[in-house]
Model the fold of this input.
Amino acid sequence: MSTQAQPISEQTATTEKAPNLNPPQKKLVAGGITVAFILTIYLAATQHVVQPLLLLIGLLLGYTLFHARFGFTSAFRRLASVGNGQSLRAHMFMLAIACTLFAPILAFGYSFFGGTPSGNISPIGISLIVGAFMFGIGMQLGGGCASGTLYSVGGGRTVMFITLLFFIIGSTIGAAHSTFWMEDLPSVEPFSLATSTGLGYGGAWAVSLMIFAIIAWITIFIEKKRKPPKMAPLPSEKGWKRIFRGSWPLFAAAAALAVLNALTLLTREKPWGVTAAFTLWGSKVAEALGFNVESWGYWAGNTEALHASIFADTTTALNFGVILGAFIASAAGGLFKFTKITKGNTAASIIGGLLMGYGARLAFGCNVGAYFSGIASFSVHGYIWGVMALAGTFLALYLRPLFGLSVPKPHDSFC
Done:
């Protein structure tokens, strides 16, 4: 795999020596920083102080995601295809730190601006099961999850612009159908390991760590059985320069993402999410086209967001930050470059984007809002989301070749 292909993929699984870094694209770096600065000033002048802070957190999230090529899609695919669990163990490490930080924040109800923070705790029902399964298929066809789509767009992966567009469309259609899935089909009340069991946040934290340890052990057991290739190193600087150019260790990025999610919770009083902004953007367009968006169950009791500026939306601020952060990171590494698209990956991106968008609305979130932030909030629905998304990944392994997409095999590189 060439160096130029690296920014559009997550870490590969070979034993090759890390390639050299490209020269930094200084004009692009300067342009990205300038746009980020102007947007920060605009948000500070027109919105609550929360918005520019969230833009900054988003910048750091995108910067981290790109530098580590930290993936949710590839982690599931590596485990399902060849039994490589390195990335999934990084997930468990990230979740362990996030739970450790979330527990006191939620227990004591502290936030930076005086409000009461709340976790992502959602119902368990048919919509969750179907939606997460759809999302698992979609992220393997679309080439990235919700966070992966954003940072890949920031890195210049052309086909991911198509995925993002249809992600927004699918999320909007899901919002239009929300009444059927959320109200007409059976479900049970949200279940928290902390507040629904009597364990409290301390007990829920201990149980969560045990679950993460068991999952990590299972991945090691699978690797011993299947003997998959290890992940290859990506180009990187040495020492402190590595912060600005080159790849980061997965576990360092996992820790950074957990801390940034906790900062998001403290700042806006709810954890990191991605797809609610997609639904807002698409719903605004649908309303402009004449659809009666206010009648959709998804927007019941929250029509103010429909008529406010998108810059007043906290998730939008985070998403813009992620894209800009990834753009700056890719340009600093000399890796920003628009890539070629084919009929196969275009079709896969369209279908994958639709499935992810629709599935995220059914499942109360994506790999970030439901899986990462849900589990960090001690919600059982986050674990169910992960299981069903992994099941969707297994099915997608049989679908990917239909679109000319590769399926990793033992001793092959991951793409």
Summary: The first strand starts at residue 124 and ends at 125. The chain has 16 helices and two strands.
